[in-house]
Amino acid sequence: MKKIALFLAISLTVACSGDSDSPKSTKxxxxxxxxxxxxxxxxxxxxxxxxxxxxxxxxxxxxxxEYTYEDEYLTQMKELDGTTVTATxxxxxxxxxxxxxxxxxxxxxxxxxxxxxxxxxDIYVRTNDLLRDGYNSSDGHFKFRMTGSSISYIEAFIPxxxxxxxTVNILYDTKKSPMVNVWANSIMSMAKLQGGDRxxxxxxxxxxxxxxxxxxxxxxxxxxxxxxxxxxxxxxTTYTIEYFYK
Length: 246
Known about the structure:
Layout: E1 30-36, E2 42-50, E3 53-59, E4 63-70, E5 73-81, E6 84-95, E7 98-106, E8 109-117, E9 122-127, E10 130-132, E11 135-137, E12 140-147, E13 150-157, E14 166-172, H1 185-192, E15 200-207, E16 210-220, E17 226-233, E18 238-245
Antiparallel strand pairs: 1-2, 1-18, 2-3, 3-4, 4-5, 5-6, 6-7, 7-8, 8-9, 9-12, 10-11, 12-13, 13-14, 14-15, 15-16, 16-17, 17-18
């Protein structure tokens, strides 16, 4: 697939699975989500594709995300608020499913993550933007491990500390992620350091003087895709997501 023009007359949407050999339009794809928050407010997201390449996501609050590809590589994603670009994400590669560098431009601020693949299966990520629990380092790094396109743990370090300043552990269910069939899903999961081809059931973070945890329960359809999720965060905040498929 060659460059996809993003200025189409119709809206289109996001990510895709790096486990596939080629894009196919017969796969189950996420069509829409509706997120309901504690205060009763809702946000609806609609996803648009070319085959199984997610090219645009639109939100009911006026935001949107636009995706650009070169051949089978996701190279850029733009966040927009109306017609204003609020952030630009860029992706560079060693090969089709090996991310080399991920850069985010928000106004005058540029953040990056550069990737190194270790022999033991861990992935080493150097970043100039490690913000967590009061830490602000221009030379920090992460280490994490992926099974398929799901991340099992994340450790974050800064140069002045030998031990991680925080650790994230992620537990998954055995069902299918709503985005499992979307091209470049694994790349987006790696760039965000979460998510993947399964659904996050428990997400816990421990570090410094703070800890946080979220737990999610799912309802599934007959094909094993979630139709609803209810997430409770450690501060007792709860939100619900409904999933609809093409």
